[in-house]
Amino acid sequence: MSEEFCKVKNRIQKIVLMVVFLLTLTPLPLSAQATISEEPDFPEIKSDYVYMVDLDNNQIMLDEGSEQTIYPASMTKMMTLLVAIENAPALESTMVLGPEVFAGLAEAHASVAGFKPGEEVSVKDLLYGLFLPSGADAAQALALEEAGSEAAFVELMNEKAAALGMSGTHFVNTSGLHDPDHYTTLRDLEKLMRYALENPTFREIFQTRRYTANPSLHPGGLVWESTLFAKLTTGPENEANATITANTSRIVNDSIIGGKTGYTNPAGLCLASIAEKNGTRYLLITAHAPVSNTPYHILDAAHIYDYFYEYYARQTVLTADQILLETKVPFVLFNNKLSLSAGSDIVLNLPKTLDLSTLLIETELDQDLQAPISEGQRLGTVKISRTDTETPTVLKELELVSPRSYKRSALLYGFYQFQQWVKNNTIFFALSVLGLILCLILLRDYRREQRRYQSARKKRRRRPHL
C-alpha cells in the first residue's frame, strides 16, 4: 500500500502544478499654452489681462488671466444696459428726471450723458445715454424707474449674473464706480456679452457710433459719440492699421464694430469689443492697461485684431467622417464594432504657416467602454492641441457620443462576472478546484483498490483445498 500511496501523492503534486499554471492564464477583466503672445510677430501690448475668442467656433484665441478677478469700471454698463432693456417698458415711453438721479455723481467724478434735472427723457434716449457717453446719470435714472432704487436694480444685475453662470462676478452699483466688492473676470464678461449680443436692442446700441437724443430741455438735441469710436477711424486705405493718425489723433482700424470702454485708477484702461472682417468675428476683452492720455486699451485691441486678421486663417483640421476611435464594445454578442467621428467638419483659426501635421489629436474615454450604451450617450472627448510651441496649447475640445445603442449580452456578461469572481477569489477557487480533484482521485483510487480486493477474494474462494 505504501508504494501505491506514493504514486497517488506524485499524481496530486502534478495536478496542483497544473492548476496553478492554468490560474495564471485566467483572462484579465475586460477594459475598457503656450500663449500666442510668445510668437515672434505678436505685437507688444500694455493690458495685463487679455481674453479673445472666435465668435463662430468658440475657439479661444488668446488667454492671459481670463479667470483673474478684475475691476470692470464702466464695462459694468453692459450688464446695466442688458437688465434695463429686459425690464424696460416701451422704448418710446418717457420719464421726468428728478434731483435724485444726479445725487452724488459730481462728487464721485462720474461720467455723465448731460441730462438736466426736470428734463423729460425717453427710455430709448436713456439707454443710448447710458452706453455711448457712459452716462452715470442715465444709469441712475433707469435704475430708479425700473427698480425703485439703485440697490434694488443692482440686485437684478447680480441675479442676472448668477443666471448666466458668472460665478466670479459681483456688482454693487450700476455705473462701475470703484468699490472693492465690485468685481468680475474676463470669462464672466464673455458670458455676458455672448448672451447680450443675442438681444437686438443691445446689439444695436453696442455697435452704434453716434446717436442724437431729444430730451425736452435740449432743443438742439444731445449728440453722443461712442467712447470707443471717438478714438477710432477706418482711415485711408493706404494707411497702416492700428496707428494714431497725426491729423485726427484717432486710431486707424477697419475691423472693430462695437464695444464698451472702462476706466478707473484701480481698474486701469479696459475695453470689451467685437470685430468682424473677411467673414471672421472675434470677441476681445482687455483690462488693466496703464492709465494714460494714450488710449492703450483701444490700441491693444486694434493691434491684436490686426495681428489675427493678418496672420491667421480658418483651416479644416478634422473632416466629418474622419474616424477618431474604432474599437469593439465588450459584452455585445453581434455587431459590436464602434466607430466615433467628429460628426461635422472641425474648422479652427490657425496661423497661415502652421504645418497641420504638428497638431496633436488625443481621444480619451470617460470610463471603461462596455455595454449597455444608449444612442447619443457621451463616451469621452477629443482634444486638438498645438505642439509646435514651448508649451502645448489645447485649441479645441469636443464631446464624443455614441452613434447608436449597444445591448448587453447576458451570456457574455455572466462569463465576465465569473472571471471577475475567480480573479477576486483566487485562493478559494484554487483550493476548491484542488479539493475537488483530490476527492475525485481518492474516489478513483478507492474504487480501484476495492476492485482489486474483490478480485483477490474471488480468486481465494476458487482455489481448491488440498
Average pLDDT level: 87
* Reported CATH architecture of the largest domain: 3-Layer(aba) Sandwich
Q: How many independent structural domains?
A: 2
The whole-angstrom Rg is: 38 Å
- How much of the sequence lies in strands comes to 15-25%
Helical content class: 25-40%
CATH class of the largest domain: Alpha Beta
Shape: elongated
Report the total helices. 10
Query: What does the main sheet amount to?
Result: 5 strands, antiparallel
Topology:
Blueprint lengths: L1 H23 L24 E6 L5 E5 L12 H11 L6 E3 L23 E3 H9 L4 H12 L2 H14 L22 H11 L3 H7 L3 E4 L8 E4 L6 E2 L17 E2 L3 E9 L3 E10 L2 E10 L6 H16 E7 L4 E6 L8 E5 L4 E6 L7 E7 L12 E9 L6 E9 L8 H15 L1 H37 L4
Parallel strand pairs: 7-8
Antiparallel strand pairs: 1-2, 1-11, 3-4, 5-6, 9-10, 10-11, 12-15, 13-14, 16-17, 17-18
Helix pairs in contact: 1-10, 2-4, 3-4, 4-5
Outline of the structure:
The protein has helices at 2-24, 77-87, 123-131, 136-147, 150-163, 186-196, 200-206, 296-311, 410-424, 426-462; strands at residues 49-54, 60-64, 94-96, 120-122, 210-213, 222-225, 232-233, 251-252, 256-264, 268-277, 280-289, 312-318, 323-328, 337-341, 346-351, 359-365, 378-386, 393-401. With 466 residues, the chain is an alpha+beta fold.
